[in-house]
């Protein structure tokens, strides 16, 4: 049976999906990047290879996320796609009449507006991290609450505390102030969820027309407190798809499938790449006054990819 | 003898160098803005100032190291604070111990005496008025040649068969125009340059998207300040048309406010009847004009904290929905990482391509 591989290499998590031609998810892995994308991709692929049913042939591979080029050259991807397109494709596969996609990930958050099945507008957070998962992670750690329990705790609150959401620095000092005044922890946590949502809607979604159905995906969609805050703020239900935390990878797999449908054979190197030694190196290019730092990735002592230059000088391998 | 320098904006330095030398000045050519330019500019500029002030601050400091003692720059009318930058630069440089002579050109229509006095100061060779006029005319012709070659590069790049070909040929032909001196030489070099660009192997079947770029003039004209967005778009298969060229802008602001500018203002008036300074109103007007011409999308470039462009940014979503044209805004500052911009540009290109394919399909079915 033919199947398609999708890999989403984000700053916080790496997601690997093997999807059948019918669109069934055979494996969906959510792994923490932990600053070591190469190792985690290799381990993840090993795990995925062991988990898929026997007799599966990978007929195409796609990568997305901020580490898409790295993953792309490692596995031999047929499609290397930006995460906005990948998330939009996945959402419209799972919820065919979707009009709004809200994605909140580790380091970035985005909104994608679709009409009649095509993307008509999108935005990504640009200047601040106050509307992202990292902010919640950090505050949960500071309050000593496991991030998995964060949402439930917010739901248990009866009255939220207003917390400034514009900037993480303001939010943190506001939170400390409120906690020292004696507010209950659940109320503060609920206030924090509302602050994140307010910031997302004011900053990322500003000027966009949010129409239902609204799909909420990305790692933060696991947080029921945020979901509830979104529903209250928007005054409409928010759909969380079954595989909300690996939607980028699903989109990448779908795009690889579309590419393969055009009759192209895959350049996927096979799960064998999990055993190959990879290493990276870097050097300064002195070609001009920009002095770009060029990063190279080696597979068994052979350069397979380069990044970091402002011109095309080092693009050709 | 004094050494003269000026702000760098794309390839226009080739013209200004020639003109200033013709008038008998020794010229320090401003280097292409680099990381070092940024470092210097950021260190010695107010934190809240916009990106062009910082880049120019860095450029001037680099030029001073190369021996410059006179700076020729432009002022400006209207509420944009860039009109005060020449004085601010001079004060900061003075604090740093550099007593620079600043020659600030205001729009000659409003300040004719300023124009004549400045030209006279720069006329070291004591050339006759007729001589000066003919030098300016020739310099103008060179600026037009540089602009026309650049425009063509935006057409050939998305269609080129061998990636990188356009950029290589473009660099080569720029030198030809640079070396041309007399008007016939400039015309000949321009023709040869255009011919060479047209001969780049191209794929006429390729579906090329057309995008207009609007925004603040400095980040529009200096590729080092906009992360070479035109080249990136060209490589993604997008033909770019900038709303502003130095020949266009200078024409509008020197001899006459031409019909072209009137239409831009007219187009913008229903949305923004006031002059908000800088090019805020032009960004709106040009978006409308491009939409009417059937462009696939628009990109707005603005320095972070630029008020005129922030005003335009808040109005553009309405223009975008009224005229059914996607608009993407970039606020530029000292960040040099290209990844964020590339991701958005790729997604924007996907968006426009899918929209266009859908339109083509619908047209086939209905017509």
Name the CATH class of the largest domain in chain B. Answer: Alpha Beta
CATH superfamily of the largest domain in chain A: ATPase, nucleotide binding domain
**Number of H/I helices of chain A:** 9
Note the total helix count of chain B: 15
CATH top level assignment of the largest domain in chain A:
Alpha Beta
Q: C-alpha Rg of chain B, in Å?
A: 21 Å
What is the number of strand segments of chain B? 8
Describe, in short, the structure shown.
The complex is a heterodimer of chains A (317) and B (367). With 317 residues, chain A is an alpha/beta fold. In chain A, 36% of the residues lie in helices and 25% in strands.
Provide structural commentary.
The complex is a heterodimer of chains A (317) and B (367). Helix content of chain A is 36%, strand content 25%. Chain A is globular and about 60 Å long. Chain A has 317 residues and is an alpha/beta fold. In chain A, a hairpin with a 4-residue loop joins strand 2 and strand 3 (25-32). Chain A is built from 9 helices and 13 strands. Chain B has 3 domains: 3-127, Rossmann fold (3-Layer(aba) Sandwich), CATH 3.40.50; 132-207; 209-367, Rossmann fold (3-Layer(aba) Sandwich). Chain B has 15 helices and 8 strands. The model of chain B is unreliable at 250-262 (pLDDT under 50). The A-B interface holds A 66, 81-85, 116, 118-122, 124, 126-127, 207-209, 288-291, 310-312 and B 31-32, 34-37, 163-164, 167, 227-228, 314, 317, 320-321, 326, 331, 336, 338-340, 342-344, 346-348, 350-351, 354-355, 358.
């Amino acid at each position: 049976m033919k199947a398609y591989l999708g890999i989403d290499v984000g700053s916080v998590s790496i997601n690997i999906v093997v999807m059948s031609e019918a669109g069934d998810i055979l494996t969906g892995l959510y792994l923490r990047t932990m600053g070591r994308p190469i190792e985690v991709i290799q381990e993840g692929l090993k795990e995925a290879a062991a988990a898929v049913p026997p007799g599966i042939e990978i007929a195409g591979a796609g990568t997305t996320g901020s580490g898409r080029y790295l993953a792309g050259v490692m596995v031999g991807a047929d499609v290397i796609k930006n995460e906005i397109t990948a998330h939009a494709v996945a959402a419209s596969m799972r919820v065919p009449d979707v009009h709004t996609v809200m994605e909140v990930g580790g380091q970035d958050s985005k909104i994608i507006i679709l009409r009649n099945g095509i993307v008509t507008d999108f935005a990504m957070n640009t200047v601040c991290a106050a509307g992202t998962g990292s902010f919640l992670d950090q505050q949960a750690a500071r309050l000593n609450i496991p991030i998995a329990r964060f949402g439930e705790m917010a739901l248990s609150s009866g009255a939220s505390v207003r917390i400034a959401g514009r900037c993480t620095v303001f939010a943190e000092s506001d939170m400390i102030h409120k906690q020292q005044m004696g507010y209950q922890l659940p109320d503060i946590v609920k206030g924090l969820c509302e602050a994140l949502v307010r910031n997302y809607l004011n900053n990322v979604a500003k000027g966009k027309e949010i129409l239902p159905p609204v799909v909420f995906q990305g790692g933060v969609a696991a947080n029921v407190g945020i979901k509830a805050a979104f529903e209250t703020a928007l005054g409409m239900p928010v759909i969380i798809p079954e595989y909300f935390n690996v939607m980028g990878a699903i989109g990448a797999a779908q795009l690889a499938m579309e590419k393969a449908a055009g009759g192209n054979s895959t350049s996927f190197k096979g799960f064998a790449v999990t055993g190959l030694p990879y290493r990276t190196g870097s050097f300064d290019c002195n070609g001009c006054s920009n002095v770009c730092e060029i990063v190279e990735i080696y597979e068994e002592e052979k350069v397979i990819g380069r990044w970091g230059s402002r011109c095309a000088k080092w693009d050709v391998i | 003898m004094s050494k003269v320098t000026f702000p760098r904006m794309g390839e226009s330095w080739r013209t200004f160098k020639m003109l200033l030398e013709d008038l008998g000045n020794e010229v320090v050519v401003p280097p292409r803005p680099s990381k070092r330019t940024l470092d210097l500019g950021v260190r010695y500029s107010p934190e809240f100032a916009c990106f062009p002030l910082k880049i120019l601050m860095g450029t001037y400091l680099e030029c001073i190291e190369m021996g410059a003692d006179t700076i020729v720059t432009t002022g400006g009318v209207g509420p944009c604070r860039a009109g005060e930058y020449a004085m601010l630069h001079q004060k900061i440089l003075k604090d740093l111990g550099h007593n620079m002579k600043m020659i600030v050109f205001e729009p000659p229509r409003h300040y004719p005496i300023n124009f004549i006095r400045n030209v006279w100061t720069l006329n070291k060779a004591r050339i006759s008025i007729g001589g000066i006029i003919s030098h300016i005319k020739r310099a103008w012709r060179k600026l037009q040649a540089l602009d026309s070659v650049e425009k063509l590069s935006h057409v050939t790049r998305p269609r080129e068969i061998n990636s990188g070909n356009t950029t290589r040929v473009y660099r080569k032909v720029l030198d030809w125009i640079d070396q041309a001196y007399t008007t016939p030489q400039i015309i000949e070099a321009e023709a040869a340059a255009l011919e060479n660009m047209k001969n780049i192997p191209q794929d006429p079947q390729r579906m090329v998207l057309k995008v207009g770029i609007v925004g603040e003039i400095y980040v529009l004209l200096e590729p080092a300040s906009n992360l070479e967005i035109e080249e990136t778009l060209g490589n993604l298969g997008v033909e770019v048309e900038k709303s502003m060229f130095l020949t266009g802008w200078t024409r509008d602001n020197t001899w006459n406010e031409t019909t072209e500018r009137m239409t831009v203002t007219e187009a913008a008036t229903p949305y923004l009847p006031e002059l908000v300074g800088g090019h805020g109103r032009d960004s709106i007007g040009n978006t409308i004009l491009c939409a009417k011409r059937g462009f696939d999308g628009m990109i707005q470039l603005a320095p972070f904290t630029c008020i005129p462009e922030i005003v335009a940014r808040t109005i553009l979503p309405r223009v975008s929905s009224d005229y059914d044209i996607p608009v993407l805004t970039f606020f530029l500052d000292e960040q040099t990482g290209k990844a964020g911009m590339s991701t958005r540009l790729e997604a924007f290109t996907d968006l426009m391509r899918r929209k266009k394919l859908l339109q083509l399909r619908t047209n086939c079915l209905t017509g």
